[in-house]
Amino acid sequence: MVEKLDGERHSNFEVTDFSLLDGVGIGGFLRSSTFTVGGYEWELKIYPDGSCGFSTFVEKSNLRQLMALNGGSITVRCVLTVMKGHQTSEDVHTVLVPLPQSNLHRHFLDMLKGGQGADVTFTVGGQSFLAHRCVLAARSSVFKAELLAGEMNETLVESIKMDDMEPSIFEALLHFIYTDSLPDDRHEYNNRHTQMQHLLVAADRYGIERLMAMCEGQLCRNIKVQTVATTLALAEQHHCVHLKKACLAFLSSRDVRQAIKETDGFKHLVTSCSSVILEIFDKPPPHS
Question: Does residue 159 register a pLDDT over 50?
Answer without folding.
Answer: yes
